[in-house]
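Hey, I'm writing a tutorial for new members on how sequence and structure tokens pair up, and I'd like a real worked example in the thread rather than a made-up one. If someone can provide the structure for the chain below, I'll link this post from the tutorial.
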Amino acid sequence: MTAEVAQGREWIRAPRDNHTAVFHPARAQVSSVLAQNIELFRSSKTPAWIRELRCQVRTSALETSQRYLAEYSASLFHRHCNNVPRPTELSSQRSDLEVPWIVGGHQPELFHPGVWFKNFVIDSIAKESGGIGLHTIIDHDLARAASIRVPKRDTFSGRLVQTACDLPICRSDATRTVHQTPWHSARIDRAGLRRTLREITDSLSSLGIQNPIAVDFWGHMEQMHDGTEAAIAFSQYRHSLEIKHGLSNLELPFSRLATSEPWQAFLHHCIVHGEKLHEIYNASLQEYRAEEKISNPTQPVPPLSSRDGWFELPFWLYKIDSNVRQRLWALPDPSGGNRWSLGSGLNPSVFDWVIDWSTDPDRSKKAWVGYLRDGICVRPRALLTTMFLRCFMADLFVHGIGGGVYDRLTDAIIQRFLQMPAPSYLTCTATEWLTMSEIPEMDTKALHGQRQALHRQSQLLRSRPELFLEPNDAMDAELRMHQDTLIATVPPRGSKKRWHREITNVKTRILERVAAIRKENEEQLQRIEQRVHELRYLNSREYSFILFPESTLLPSLRQMSR
């Protein structure tokens, strides 16, 4: 089942129902949007230098992604012996870089199926258009979560609860805390692998879930050496599942793209026009926050700072052996020369180190080779990442809901900084629930209707218990009549003491008569509240894809992507 969303992006919401996807623009309109983007990139509306650099980026990306795949493709295809075409075989037939490129990207985490859905959409559109699908692994983003949430039936209370299960990752310095570490600095840590897997499988088994992807995933991690880059290990395993189920997307870690000459050329343009980029970025952000009525100063991204002649640019500047990303600050030569200084740190007063950058393209390219050799990393922040991929690689970029909403801000930066119309992009996601066989299906609306009715009944049992007296019971009828008489003969103020005592006594006796109904109501309400609590976990779309059975999840995502 697929829900098409034709409203503005501000109305896009994750679908609530199981096996449901949303697209904006509608899935049927994608081919038209793709054609418009291709026309944009071929027209004079796109500056000539961008068209030229696009060709260089795509050439480099194609070669790099093929080399990357070759590192693990032999074992991958031996493992999944079938007739699925290899991505290398597919792309090697494409000598013309002008075929449509459908591109997406995400952190190499064990995300929920709604995020993974993008890769299935990329593959589907690429095959429809005769183009190339490519997933970019954003391995310079932070590895924020070292665990995943797993539902289980508590042995003692019988309630459905969630537990956090550790992922087999640590920092490159073997520290377990990785939430502020770039993904490419996270490493596989095999200690406790079997214990954690047993915890996951036992939890899922308590809910009737058998054969989760986690079993195969953990087996794959056991084959890794301690110290293997977690981003690569996670991504290669996920990619192997995609290929097994017929997807032909290429894969490319951004860290490898960021060592290429075309990336250096893009970076050079951003630095030598850094003051303009800084100004446009902040102005566009301020306008976006005003339009969206956002009061949090860090949402959707914090503004760029300036201090003592230095101004911050939307990049990270750090060394590959560092477990912490640092901001990039730029300072033009005060004397007006062609030398810039780039600083790495929180602010100009606490720089870890500073490097030189020449405004001369040839000199900066030569220096760049030395910086790469020294392990210096320059990586884009979120908005610049998608700006680069959308304008210099993709003919159509595929976003999730969060990125799709925020990239309206990127549109403004593209138009002002790159001096071209922002290419359209596709926003999509899907909802998949864990299927727990030991819990019977129940209509959510009916459940909440029962809950509301029971709450209303509970309220009436407290405020008007006489409504629940049995009219055919003589004692109940007498109590009801006595109460009605007392209510009809309320004495004047100052003479109510005896009346109040008598009506209180009547109500107490009525409450005693309906005590069994009240008890039954409370028990029913407790059962319903427990069911609502369980459905809140059941209907969560946030569980990692490795908790799902492969045999049901991947066919569902593939079907919805078409």
